[in-house]
């Protein structure tokens, strides 16, 4: 039996394309304890996610976590589940569709967009296989995490490499490492805050809450913390905020070790006593709304804040499939596929002009705000 998958006879003149694999974290198949157990087992067994010696971790994982957490997490998932299923999955599919449409109008050559999840379904293996079948000879991997973190981006790349070991004819491969300071991404965030302020009274502070990671990972050289702060600073600049009008916090702490501080929940519990009773909160590190934004930020932390005496608490949704976000992601794809036939030689004149115009707009918007 061949160690390679889906082998096809080679023939000259077969049509080729550029393939783009969007990768997000993954979500359980259903909001019930057995599905959560399966999902958490795969997720929390990843040594990129939990970096403690396996012999110790396996005792904790199999002895405690997988016996207690699935039921508790399932109840949280039920509170955000919709008729379309998991928000993360539904929104990711909308992003894939919108990006495919953007690619079809931008480029003359074929660019195929597929969606994969690092854990659960659709798997990275199935996404790559679809791209292989579509004739992708050039592959761009785009993890939908703006800030690089080994626990998210690197593990997505690991999985892609593992899978490509099973291809006889390995395609050209490029990876998007991060896009935490991409002008289109910052512009999309700023626009979504400004739109929110047009519709709701503005809070005293804009809280920018990012998913946490263990503090130890920062000390070991993970650039995530630094990239979160850069995104936050650029967003604050784009909104012309003064230092006392914004802050960064870190959410979703897991386990007993110290994680990146300040913690979102503790901060929101303390702010009312400091006279800050009206806040807007945004989660710039989440490309799509999910359990961590809809349950933890929109529901749980609102209660903490109001219980501590806070009055107005507004969650500003993730960028999801909004058109500025899709344009920014399309620009990122365009920039990372320079020199590849489908996106360069055949790059339509209109697309080139639009991209140049957007670059000028970002520059002049930033100039005007300084
Ligand atoms: C165990 C440690 C964890 C690390 C490190 C971690 C990093 C990390 N996670 C995201 C994004 C998401 N995490 C989500 C859920 C989630 N995260 C952890 C744990 C760690 N995350 C758990 C156990 C869970 C599952 C839910 C629970 O039981 O609490 C999600 C939501 C998925 C969904 O289905 O909606 C996202 C997205 C980032 C960006 C990150 C590091 C930067
Ligand atoms: Fe997480
Ligand atoms: Fe959480």
From TrEMBL:
CDD domains the UniProt entry points to: Ferrochelatase_C, Ferrochelatase_N
Protein's UniProt keywords contain Ribonucleoprotein: no
Annotated Gene Ontology cellular component terms: cytoplasm
Record EC number: 4.98.1.1
Record: residues binding Fe(2+): 211, 292
GO MF, one annotated term: ferrochelatase activity
Pathway(s) served: Porphyrin-containing compound metabolism; protoheme biosynthesis; protoheme from protoporphyrin-IX: step 1/1
InterPro entries linked: Ferrochelatase (IPR001015), Ferrochelatase_C (IPR033644), Ferrochelatase_N (IPR033659)
Domain of life where this protein originates: Bacteria
Annotated keywords: Cytoplasm, Heme biosynthesis, Iron, Lyase, Metal-binding, Porphyrin biosynthesis
Protein's GO biological process: heme biosynthetic process
Main location: cytoplasm
DNA-binding listed as a keyword: no
Gene3D superfamilies the record matches: 3.40.50.1400
Pfam families according to UniProt: Ferrochelatase (PF00762)
Reactions it catalyzes: heme b + 2 H(+) = protoporphyrin IX + Fe(2+); Fe-coproporphyrin III + 2 H(+) = coproporphyrin III + Fe(2+)
Compartments, record wording: Cytoplasm
Similarity remark: Belongs to the ferrochelatase family.
Function of the protein: Catalyzes the ferrous insertion into protoporphyrin IX.
Protein's recorded name: Ferrochelatase
Species this chain originates from: Thiothrix unzii
Gene that this polypeptide is encoded by: hemH
């Amino acid at each position: 039996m061949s160690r390679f998958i889906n082998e096809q006879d080679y023939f000259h003149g077969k049509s080729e394309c550029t393939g783009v694999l969007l990768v997000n974290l993954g979500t359980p198949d259903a909001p019930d304890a057995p599905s959560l157990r399966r999902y958490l087992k795969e997720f929390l067994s990843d040594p990129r996610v939990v970096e403690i010696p396996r012999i110790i971790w396996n005792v904790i994982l199999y002895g405690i976590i997988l016996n207690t957490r699935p039921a508790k997490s399932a109840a949280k998932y039920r509170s955000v589940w919709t008729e379309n299923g998991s928000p993360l999955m539904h929104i990711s599919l909308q992003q894939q569709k919108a990006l495919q449409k953007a690619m079809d109008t931008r480029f003359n050559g074929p660019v195929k967009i597929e969606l994969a999840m690092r854990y659960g379904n659709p798997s990275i293996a199935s996404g790559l296989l679809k791209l292989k079948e579509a004739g992708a000879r050039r592959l761009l991997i785009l993890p939908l995490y703006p800030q690089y973190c080994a626990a998210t981006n690197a593990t997505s790349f690991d999985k892609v490499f593992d899978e490509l070991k099973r291809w006889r004819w390995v395609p050209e491969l490029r990876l998007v490492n991060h896009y935490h300071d991409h002008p289109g991404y910052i512009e999309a965030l700023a626009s979504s805050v400004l739109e929110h302020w047009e519709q709701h009274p503005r809070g005293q502070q804009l809280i920018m809450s990012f998913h946490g990671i263990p503090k130890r990972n920062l000390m070991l050289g993970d650039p995530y913390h630094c990239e979160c702060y850069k995104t936050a600073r650029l967003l604050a600049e784009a909104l012309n905020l003064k230092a006392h009008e914004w802050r960064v916090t870190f959410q979703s702490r897991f386990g007993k070790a110290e994680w990146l501080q300040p913690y979102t929940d503790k901060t929101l519990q303390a702010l009312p006593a400091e006279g800050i009773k009206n806040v807007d909160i945004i989660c710039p590190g989440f490309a799509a709304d999910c359990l961590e934004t809809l349950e933890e930020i929109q529901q749980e932390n609102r209660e903490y804040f109001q219980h501590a005496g806070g009055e107005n608490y507004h969650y500003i949704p993730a960028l999801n499939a909004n058109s500025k976000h899709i344009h920014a992601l399309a620009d990122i794809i365009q920039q990372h596929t320079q020199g590849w036939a489908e996106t360069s030689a055949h790059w339509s004149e209109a697309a080139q002009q639009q991209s140049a115009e957007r670059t000028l707009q970002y520059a002049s918007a930033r100039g005007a705000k300084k």
